[in-house]
Amino acid sequence: MIKPGEYNVLKVIKKKTMGVFLDDGDIGILLPKRFVPPRTKIGDELKVYLYHDGEDRIIATTLQPFGVLGDIVKLKAVSTTPQGAFLDWGLMKDLFIPRSRQVSFMRPNGEYLVKIMLDEQTGRLYGTEKLEPFLSNAALTIKEMELVDLLVYRKSDLGYVVIINNKHTGLLHFNEVYRPVQIGDRFTGFIKKIYPVNEAGEYMIGVVAGKPG
C-alpha cells in the first residue's frame, strides 16, 4: 500500500517521455523525467517520496523534503492568502498551512515551526502550527540518560522549552546552554532528570544538549 507523505520503495512498471511510472497496484504513479536516476529501467525499485501535485494527483519525487509526515520542522513562508500560507519544504509544490491551523499571523519570509499532517478525508498533506495537542508528558516514551532528538520550541524564564522526539516537551536550562540557540534549532541531547507528576498529571523533564559525559 502506498503512503503519501512518506518514502516508498516502488517498482518501475513503464517508461514514457514524461518520466517513469511506478507500481501502485493501479495505473501507476508518475516520477517526472527530471527526477529519474540515470540508467533506470523497467523492473528497478526506486525510493521515492509521494505527495500531491498542483492538480491533486499523487506524484513521486526523488527530492528530499525538509520533513515527512508527522515531523515537526521549521519552514519559511513563501506566500500567503486569506485562506492560509504556503511554506517551502523542499519540493516543487509548497506545503499549505490553513488559516485555521495558524497560531501567529504568517508573513512571507517568516519562519515557523509546523507539524506535517495528512487530511484523512482527502489524503492531502498540510501543516499545522498548533503543536500543543500533539505534545504530552502524561505517558513517557523516554527514560533518564537516554539520547533523544531535541527541537527548540520557545524561550521561557528558565531556559528553552524543547520538543523531545516529536512527542514530549522538556526544559534546557540557560546554564546548560553552551552554544547559540534559536527557535527551530535541532540537535541531539539526553534526558538529565525526570521529575514527579505535577498538578496537571504530567512529568517535568530536564534535558541537556550533547551526549552524557
Q: Report helical residue fraction.
A: under 10%
Biggest β-sheet description: 5 strands, antiparallel
Strand content: over 45%
How many helix segments?
0
Instruction: Please give the order of strands in the largest beta sheet.
Output: 3-2-1-4-5
Termini, distance in Å? Answer: 44 Å
Explain what this protein looks like in three dimensions:
With 213 residues, this protein is mainly β. The chain has strands at residues 7-16, 19-22, 29-32, 45-52, 58-61, 72-81, 84-88, 95-98, 111-118, 125-128, 147-155, 159-164, 168-173, 186-195, 204-209. It is elongated, with a radius of gyration of 20 Å. It starts with 6 loop residues before the first strand and ends with a strand.
